Amino acid sequence: MKGSLFITGPAGTGKSTLAGSLKEWMQKQEIDSIIVNLDPGAEYIPYEADIDIREWISISQIMSEFNLGPNGAQIVASDMILENLDALRDALGAYEDYYVIFDTPGQIELFSFRPSSSIMVDALSGNQAMIAFVADSIISSTPSGFISQKLLYGSIMSRFLKPAMFVLNKCDLISEEDIKKIESWESSTDALNEDFMNEREDSNKQYFVSIISAFRESGLMTKIHKVSSKEMSGLEDVYADMSLFFSGGEDYDTLYKDD
Ligand SMILES: Nc1nc2c(ncn2[C@@H]2O[C@H](COP(=O)(O)OP(=O)(O)OP(=O)(O)O)[C@@H](O)[C@H]2O)c(=O)[nH]1
Ligand SMILES: [Mg+2]
Fold this sequence. Notes:
Blueprint: E1 3-8, H1 15-28, E2 33-37, E3 51-52, H2 59-66, H3 70-80, H4 85-92, E4 99-103, H5 108-112, H6 115-125, E5 129-136, H7 143-160, E6 164-169, H8 176-187, H9 189-199, H10 207-218, E7 224-226, H11 235-247, H12 250-256
Parallel strand pairs: 1-4, 1-5, 2-3, 2-4, 5-6, 6-7
Helix pairs in contact: 1-11, 2-3, 8-9, 9-10
Bound molecules: guanosine-5'-triphosphate and magnesium ion.
């Protein structure tokens, strides 16, 4: 593989839609990529998976075999991925010159917080892995919502210790004014702090002032990728980061050299 992008984020933020749209966008630019579905519990996915974990792992089978409910079965399934690493690696072997887009399970804790996931990411991609954290633009359009997404993003960065990008998806659902406001929070922790303090009256909020100032030092506030996976906008920005990391920007330069 040329490099892999693991798409993660809270439930329903548009991870699978982003995976499908990114592959479609790359296809239009004649850049080879494949999608690996890592969600054994997915009933519907909005793309045709090139490699699908559901070929090896079945949630309903785990539920009946171990007498588990759907959540317990998901936990067993996420750890079972490790038993299928060789099969996954064999399947990936056929795509040497491809970017690999991994779509991860809806429940963020399954992929992002279980030890099996970091083992899998390292085993499959080594140093060629990048994380895309997908945040919902509506949730992120209030100061407290934005802070909650950044804290989650930080916890994911600390789990994987890989280059990561913060994708603000569903930008088609919020106004240009809201997008500008979110960008102002990204570029100025003072602006974020002020709007957070004005959001609701609550003295306990003072606790967060130091967390917000720590954002500035931590590398959590660098760049927002404004995307609408539905309208296929902002994907060039996501690819630019991938290209920069995986090939020092060479692919991206070639793509845009005539512009
Ligand atoms: N308006 C809008 N809707 C979107 C966008 N991206 C995804 N959606 C919608 O959001 C819903 C959830 O999308 P998914 O791609 O399934 O989200 P997900 O994060 O993969 O969901 P889980 O895997 O279940 O956590 C679907 O109805 C999508 O059509 C977007 O950019 N704009
Ligand atoms: Mg999904």
